[in-house]
Amino acid sequence: MTSYPEMKSIKRTSLQLECQPATFQVHLRSAKRLRDLCCANRGTFIKVGQHLGALDYLLPEEYTHTLKVLHSQAPQSSMEEIEQVIREDLGKEIKELFVSFEDAPLGAASLAQVHKAVLQDGRTVAVKVQHPKVQAQSAKDILLMEILLVAVKQIFPDFEFMWLVEEAKKNLPLELDFLNEGRNAEKVAHMLKSFDFLKVPKIYWELSTRRVLLMEFMEGGQVNDKAYMERNCINVNEISRNLGKLYSEMIFVNGFVHCDPHPGNVLVRKCPTTGKTHIILLDHGLYQDLTDNFRLDYCQLWQALIKADVKRVQKYSRRLGAGDLYPLFACMLTARSWESVNRGIDRSPVTAKEDVEIRSNAAAYLPQINKLLNNVPRQMLLLLKTNDLLRGIESALQTRASASSFLNMSRCCIRAVSTYQRSKSISLYRKTQISLSEALSLWQISLYELFLRLKGSQLGNWVIAFLSWMHHSS
């Protein structure tokens, strides 16, 4: 995030980082203490810790790396506690409901854990059970965090993290209602039914409550497990491309976004019968509904970023609350330097040097980043978190945003803007005009995509070599 207007460029190389072991040790020690605090208090604290672990654009790497383990190493409830919740909510003992119920959970998260079981009729299911004290404790935890953050702000005025408490207040009640999660799962499965590679577990409503959710059991490897994909002959580029398609459709077209795509919630598998690769989307408790105005401004902003149209980047960033900090906002959205944004984010790949530079400057611009997070619409906060989690998956798979992923985003943005314009137009002539313009833009993208494929293929190399030969011959 460097070299942009009204901000001094600060560069710090990896060699300089090695020369500052004291800073590294202080950050690491503090991060471990914060992680231990979250684990000791469980529930809401772990949830907030997970959110902090995704803030790559804001916190030093020692914090994000240390806190990311909270996604996969959350404390577990005992079997006695799990039995108690099932007994209270379903009115029966585990042995009455299931032929078998595995004591060891498949995974434990901040609010619940999941066990594999077999119903009396032979169906294999995943049973998500809420930790017993989370409901009662969550309001007290949020109040305590609010008091702590207010106290810290009195000592350090630049410390602006109240938005984190506001988000927890709004989202936690929804995440604690598993019936709401079930409804979200069914909604997104219907909404994205055209994507045959997407699988969302079926909900068994007859045995689901606010604290217990029964789902179809689906097996697969985590989306960031490259070794699993190699063993199962799964194409990592195809997975990365399809994941991008899913989220572009959710964000730009539908405005209903799954906001917790950490690797434990996104599985991949190869279907043994068809050989097709599937993406399995889990944990539907946290969604963001985008308003039409916000969604369309966000579409226009991303189109401007992809086209390196700085004037429109400035215009739509300001409309989304960034003000004079629009260059910083663009860098946070793309995880690219301002120089790369000006040049075109699809023109050159991300380098290790640029990654170090961005992370280093994030610490330098902490007050400005905090100001941005307080000024942008609340809808933006979960999208930033979602972007960071998706980028983490791309980094693990070594498939950082390619030209094809930007082309898919462009398609969704064009479709979304055109659909909205048609809905607001009463003239048949105007609607036809919009549709023709949309078709032309989509055709141009397809033509450019074909050019890129030919350019990267053996046939394309032959054609280019032949044309070059023809040119020199003439």
Name the features:
alpha+beta, 474 residues, five-stranded antiparallel sheet, four-stranded mixed sheet, globular, single chain, 60% helix
Q: What do these coordinates show?
A:
The protein starts with 13 loop residues before the first helix and ends with a helix. It contains 21 helices and 11 strands. The chain has helices at residues 14-18, 21-41, 43-53, 61-67, 79-90, 94-97, 134-155, 162-175, 178-191, 226-231, 236-254, 292-307, 310-319, 326-334, 338-343, 352-364, 366-375, 378-397, 403-424, 428-456, 458-473; strands at residues 98-101, 107-108, 112-119, 124-130, 198-199, 212-216, 221-222, 256-258, 266-270, 277-281, 287-289. The chain is α+β, with helices and mostly antiparallel strands and 474 residues long. Strands 1, 2, 3, 4 and 6 form a 5-stranded antiparallel beta sheet that branches. Strand 9 and strand 10 (277-281) form a beta hairpin. It is globular. Mean pLDDT is 82; it is low at 1-19.
